[in-house]
Amino acid sequence: MSDYPLLTSNTITLRQFDYFVNTVQLGSLSAAARRFGITPSAMSQQIDSLESSLGRKLFDPRSRRSRLTKFGREFFTQASDVVDSVRQAMAMGQTFGDGVMTVGTTPTIAQKLLPPLIYRMRLERNIDNIEVRSFTDIRELHSTLDEGALDLAVGPLERSTAKVFHCFGEEELVVVCHHSHRNSFDGSWKQLIEAPWIRCGANSDLTDILSREAGRAGVHIRFAVRAPDVSTALSLVEHGVGVALVPRMALHGSSRLVSIVRLPRPIRRELTVHARDKSPYVEKFLDAITDTELVRKFGAAGLFDIRRPKLESASRQQVPAQIGARDSAYIPEAKAQ
To answer: Which H, E and C letters describe 116-149, residue by residue?
Structure first.
């Protein structure tokens, strides 16, 4: 005799579980029948069959399937879990890649930080199938991770519902202009608002940060050009179109036609890794991005700064003291594009 009769028996089906759970959730057998596009009598017959297989009543016979028995209440809790698990398993067909590690991040990190990191992971940690997805909207990146469509998310993300969280450094946001305009700015916001501004992305968090910083200075930014992403914004700056707020990381490999305008108060934000669960892929990624040698190389290349430890809550991980901060507007190994 099978130890798992439910898996071999034809008397109970997942459809019957679904009918029962929806009837309880909607509070009406007729409403549940309409949801599934069947007649109430057909649904009633399926629930009768379920009760017959269980050998117990799920609904009080006097309530016309509107009130659960004590057993029915207990069974509903278990049946709901079964239905939810099946739905999640079916959803894997849309989000699961066979042996694929899916990383969501910003376009700048996808272009500048991930390539050397992925090279190291393929070389040393035997991960050969990696998908990188870029998001200009941080909110969309958050929601895509929460939906389970990503193994992990990397970027300037705030705390979320993710079970795994690691802060691996800080990035500086800088105002950039064409090098011929460098002497036109002293770094004050009152002077910067006179320049034509380039907006990065329709829903970019960079726009929110720029508006916040300008608001603190009592000024309002007016955008002359809207670029789809940071890379396009930098190209517009290189052609002398205007100024833009961009991650300093984006300047790695940019042409010498771009200069940084020093702000009175630097703008910095944390770079973090978020994951819903600590899977083998996530563990390997964390091992790579916390590798001391690799982190030092990233810092020396100006990709990000290693954040100085602060007294924080126990749930937030600390990182080593800052090294390799760059003062030059350009990175020595940068090449003209």
So the answer is: HHHHHHHHHCCCCCEEEEECCCHHHHHHHHHCCC
